[in-house]
Every structure is written in C-alpha cells, then in structure tokens.
Design brief:
Blueprint lengths: L3 E10 L2 E9 L4 E5 L6 H9 L6 E6 L5 E4 L11 H8 L8 H10 L13 H14 L4 E5 L7 H14 L6 E6 L2 H7 L2 E6 L2 E7 H6 L1 E6 L12 E7 L2 E7 L11 E3 L3 H13 L2
Helix pairs in contact: 2-3, 3-4
Length: 274
C-alpha cells in the first residue's frame, strides 16, 4: 500500500484553487516542487487533516508511522526540548529516548531551550528528531531545509539518505530549493498555481526537456510557441523546450540538459504569463 494517495483533491480560497491528484509510492522519495504560493503547503495540510478539502479523497498511512516536519513546530511554546521529547514519548510505544537525545544533541538543539526560543532551523531539526525517534516509516517534510545553513542542510540530507536505506520507508519532500532534490529524490512532482504540471522520475523529467538558446534570428515567430518560459535579450533568446520538439527549432539552436531548477523556474515563468 502506498503511504499517501490524493485523488481529485480540491480546496478553494479567494483567488486560488488547489485541484490535483498525487501518489507517493512506497519505498521512494517524492520531491514536491513549486514556487512559493503554488499550493504545496495547502496540499500537505489537506493530506494531514489540518485543512478540510472541498472535494476529493485522501488515503494516508496510519498516524503512528508518520513523521511530520512543518515550517514551524506545533509544540507548546513554553516546553523545553527535553520536555517535548518526554511528553511526546507517551504517544508512541516505539519511542527511543536515547535516539532523540542523540539526534537533538548532534544537531545542536539544546535540551533546555524552549520551543519559542528556537530559530527556524532549530525548529526544523527538532521536528525531524521527533519523527526519527518514534519509528516513523513515512516522512512528510514541508520546506525542511529552509532557513538552514549549507552544513545543516547537508546533515539533514544525509539523515534522510540513511532513513531511506529501509525499503519500507518513504518521503514526501516539499521544497522550492531544487538542488536538495537532485541529491535524494527518486520522483518529482512539479506544482504551479494549485495544479500538477508534471510528475515522473527525476531522470525522466530532466530528459523530457532541453534548455535552448539562440541568436536574435534563430527563433521564427511560428516556432516561439514551442519555447517554455521564453526570455528574449539583446544577444538572442533562451528558454525551455520539450525534448521531442527540440529538433524543430533548427540546427543553429544550442541545446543543453536543464537542471531541475531550470525546469521549475521556466514553467512558473510561462504560467505567470498565461
């Protein structure tokens, strides 16, 4: 059974509508990518029951095996880190107090620090320590590396890589920092304006596009519609093009393999002008 399946999930807000389907396959890391405001957090909150969707179905793994890292800890503000671990342990029969202490100490989260005194980065580290201390099999991460310095981000990604050595473990990794997904994601779902633009393996997604560029006269008007996120400048133009359409642009156009960031940025740019 997959740890998360969303079918026809819809949520309306003034000026914004979420309308998508999404499946996180067991045993894999699903990157959930999009610009800020694209609907990633709303999707996660609907999946967790924190927001009631207007339509659609949510099939989620049992709460006892889910670990959640949100943008801010939801624990009582006056609890200390040590108190948080002690009180949460009552809800999880498989709680490992030694692992919790080792994870928080190793991440530089002081045991006597109060929740309200934690930086954003420390709050992320604390939530991940909680998730990894009660035997979670499915992690839901909402922008977990936001606010972390490069060293802390690398530590977190190493922890996730270790977590994924168990073939029964799965991760939904929501982020706008696409370089993190280059290191760990198996699948990537790109969301924009509340809708899924594309969803596939990371390798297939990168292979399905090319970053194209050319001189001012290398893009006839009748072919400009093939270019996603077209940018014209003094020396020519550049943009994203589907690999199947690349040959249509002609032999003078230069083609390169895009990064995941190239894909997300160009898709967002294109849809912003729709």
């Amino acid at each position: 059974m997959n740890p998360l399946e969303l079918h026809g999930l819809t949520k309306h807000y003034p000026g914004f509508t979420l309308d998508l389907s999404l499946t996180v396959p067991r045993g894999y890391v699903m990157g959930f990518v999009g610009a800020n405001g694209s609907g990633k957090t709303t999707t996660i909150k609907c999946a967790l029951g924190l927001v009631r969707p207007d339509a659609g179905t949510v099939t989620l793994a049992p709460k006892s095996v889910i670990g959640v890292v949100l943008d801010q800890p939801s624990y009582v503000a006056d609890w200390t880190v040590a108190t948080t671990g002690r009180l949460l342990s009552r809800f999880y029969p498989s709680w490992d107090a030694d692992r919790f202490a080792a994870l928080t100490d190793g991440a530089g989260v002081p045991s006597k620090r109060r929740i309200k005194e934690l930086s954003r980065g420390m709050g992320m580290k604390l939530q991940l320590a909680v998730a990894l201390s009660h035997g979670a099999e499915f992690l839901i991460l909402d922008e977990p590396t936001s606010g972390l310095d490069p060293f802390a981000r690398d530590q977190l990604l190493e922890g996730l890589a270790e977590f994924m050595t168990d073939e029964n473990h799965s991760v939904l990794f929501s982020t706008h920092i696409t370089s993190d997904l280059d290191k760990i994601a198996d699948y990537v779902t790109v969301i924009d304006a509340g809708r899924v633009v594309t969803s596939s393996t990371l390798d297939d997604l990168v292979e399905s596009y090319r970053l194209a560029s050319g001189g001012p006269d290398d893009l006839p008007l009748d072919l400009s519609g093939l270019v996603i996120g077209l940018r014209r400048h003094r020396t020519g133009w550049d943009g994203l093009v589907a690999t199947d359409d690349a040959a249509s642009l002609g032999r003078h156009v230069q083609l390169e393999e895009p990064t995941l960031d190239d894909i997300v940025v160009r898709i967002a740019k294109e849809r912003a002008h729709v």
